[in-house]
Each structure stands twice: as structure tokens, then as C-alpha cells.
Amino acid sequence: MNEMTRCGWAGDDPVMQAYHDAEWGVPVRDARTLWEMLMLEGFQAGLSWRTILHRREGFRAAFAGFDPVKVAGFGAADVERLMGDPGIIRARAKIEETIGAARIFVAMQAEGENFSDWLWELAGGETQVNDGVHVPASTPVSEAMSKALKARGFKFVGPVIVYAFMQAVGMVNDHAPECFRRGAVAAA
């Protein structure tokens, strides 16, 4: 029986493979899900995506299901609670950034701005399909999105993190040419 050919980064970890097979590169238009993914990518800074993915359920529990309205209401006691939570990455700056980013998200929403529409407009409105061979660390689009996010007050959104986010949420299709998901994601 032939095994499916996946992008090399999925490796032999079942959690990574499941994420690759079901989520990575599939276009996401839901604002809350985009915010969650951006926050998780920020937590990844200096770490591996495998580490984050294996703790994703812990993050979801700790951050109220990544409900921006609830997270925006977190205060100092919540920061201390999260600093003691072994189910997440206990980095004070990243925890505080997630709370701050929730407040930005909620403020945008209150002003009638849709986070998803805003991000997708910055990304060009549709998925960019790349060759999957020459995968850059960042692009002019991720640099511009990074700059726009920083201008809004987001942190941990450098161009490399933003490009990884864009790949994860389907703004970019960088599945390898031989990957069984490349065509399906392109058709999504």
C-alpha cells in the first residue's frame, strides 16, 4: 500500500500530519479563527510549530476558546493564572500580547471593521498559489501585512511570523508539488 506524500515538515508526528492533512493551507475566512491562528503563530516565535500544535487545546482552554471578547476582559490576575498554566507557553510578553490583541480585535469590530476582510484585503483578496519548491521566509505581502498589524498595535507579527500565518490560513498555498493536498487546497 502506498503512503500519501505530504509536505516534508509534517514528518511522522500524527498530530502534525493531521494538521497538515486537514487544516494547513485551507483558506480561512472566519475572523475569530484568523485571530486565534495569528496568536498561536506569535506564541511560536522562537519555538517550533510542533510545540504549539501539541499544546493547542491547552491554549484554547487557557484563552477562553480564543474568544476575543472574553480575552479582552482578562486582567492582571488572568496573566498570573496563565503564567502558572503548564498547558501553554508561559511567556509573559506573549500572554500580555494576546490580551492586547484581543482588545484591538474587539475595537476593530466595534468600529465596524471585519478582521477577516481587513487581513484578506492586505493579502490581495485571494489565495496566492506558489510553486511549492521555492518557499520564502517572507514576502513583500507578508512585510506589508506585518507593518499594518504593527501599526494597529499587534506584537509578535514580524514578516516571517506573518508569512507562516498566511500559509496556515490559506492566504498562500505552499504545499509541495508532490503533496497530495496541493490540488485540493488550490481548489478550496
Summarize this, please?
The chain has helices spanning 14-22, 31-44, 49-54, 56-62, 68-72, 76-83, 92-110, 115-122, 140-152, 159-168, 182-187; strands spanning 128-129, 172-173. By secondary structure, the chain is mostly helical. It has one domain: Orthogonal Bundle (Endonuclease III, domain 1), CATH 1.10.340.
Strand element count: 2
- The main sheet orders its strands as 1-2
Question: What share of the residues does DSSP label as strand, in percent?
Answer: under 5%
Specify the CATH architecture: Orthogonal Bundle
Helical coverage, percent range: 55-70%
Number of domains: 1
Major sheet summary line: 2 strands, parallel
- What is the CATH C level class, in words? Mainly Alpha
Total number of helices: 11
CATH topology: Endonuclease III, domain 1
For the residues shown, what is the average pLDDT?
96
User: Helix and strand string, N-terminal first?
Assistant: HHHHHHHHEHHEH
- The CATH fourth-level homologous superfamily: Hypothetical protein, domain 2
